[in-house]
Amino acid sequence: MTNTHINATTSHLISGKDDVKGTKVYNPAGEDLGHIDDILIDPASGKIVYGLLQFGGFLGIGSDYHPVPFAKLRYDSTLGGYVTDLTKEQLEGAPAYEDNWRSDRDWQQRSYDHYGVRPYWF
User: Fold this and answer.
1) In this structure, how many other beta carbons lie within 10 angstroms of the beta carbon of residue 28?
2) Report field, pTM of the whole predicted structure over 0.85
3) How many beta carbons lie within 10 A of that of residue 52, not counting itself?
4) Domain boundaries, the chain
5) For domain 14-88, which CATH number applies: 1.25.10.10, 2.60.40.790, 3.60.15.10, 2.30.30.240?
């Protein structure tokens, strides 16, 4: 049996609760757009499908929340956060956050269409 060295930078697993929640999200210019408040996982496939982005407001008061398809987020270790090509205007123009969005496939389709990514269920 061969003993192989595992590179921690490529095999590092993260916890949504401990490692992702609160992680900053930046635009390509490095400007702070907000932070990930939660992640949402499709139980059937095990895929992380949304990062719930909290932005705006002050100390959480008056903040907006937008489920962003996780495919639109890329982790940047130099920033210690996620980078997205989304603009503040795109986030503000996204389908309105609704109480039942997690089970409303029509809302999810509009969301994925808005962000220009293929829905996770295809």
Assistant:
1) 12
2) no
3) 16
4) 14-88
5) 2.30.30.240
pLDDT at 57: 63
Whole-number Cα distances in Å, 50 to 2, 3, 20, 64, 70:
38, 37, 12, 15, 5
* pLDDT-above-90 percentage for the chain: 39
End-to-end CA distance of the chain: 40
Q: How far is CA 31 from CA 4, 50, 86, in A?
A: 40, 21, 11
pLDDT one-digit tens code per residue, 16-64:
667 788 899 999 988 899 999 999 998 988 889 999 998 876 655 667 8
Strands (E), 12-107: 24-26, 32-41, 48-55, 64-69, 74-76, 81-83
